[in-house]
Amino acid sequence: MKAYxxxxxxxxxxxxxxxxxxxEPAPGExxxxxxxxxxxxxxxxTRIGKGRAENLxxxxxxxxxxxxxxxxxxxxxxxxxxxxxxxxxxxINFPGHGKAYAEYVTAxxxxxxxxxxxxxxxxxxxxxxxxxxxxxILKERVKxxxxxxxxxxxxxxxxxxxxxxxxxxxxxxxxxxxxxKNREFILSLGASAHIxxxxxxxxxxxxxxxxxxxxxxxxxxxxxxxxxxxxxxIVTIPSG
Length: 240
What we know:
alpha/beta
């Protein structure tokens, strides 16, 4: 099979196409014929020697990529959730060695889900890390509940636009910051209000917020403190 092999941490020129053997699924794993992948910031950081690079040093070959969508062509012993021919998608083997930049990839069956029939493989692959990040924050870290007042920064972005939909699904009242051109987009996703971050100061327009999801970082963390209710929560994802 063909795969993009990383020949050393650095620029994109270090990604080289090579022919390598098709992997075999271990017990509990599936073998996926890859139809689409997505490239996330962690892929780029890892490629240049940051991100998950330390975990991959010494591997041969190093194959990047974690978000994938495709078709199962083989199942390992003990796999019970899927069968050959199923179309699946997921974020696989993160934060380990994903190996998604290839024609075929193996993954534990618990790392994937059935791809909805109404979306493409490209749409499915693009959903994985971004949607999982939003869901983990809202359900595992914050435990959002119906009626909560939520402010989402960069509501039209990768994580933000999933968070808007999930918050609405969970019954929260959502305000999103985004550019003016994205106003109708985030409102169509379920936001109740839009703030144009380029021309409006959100801290003067909203107050008593239960939860702020900050997808920007920097000064937005301190500015968001001004709109929180006492005991409210901020989760920031770009800032260490």
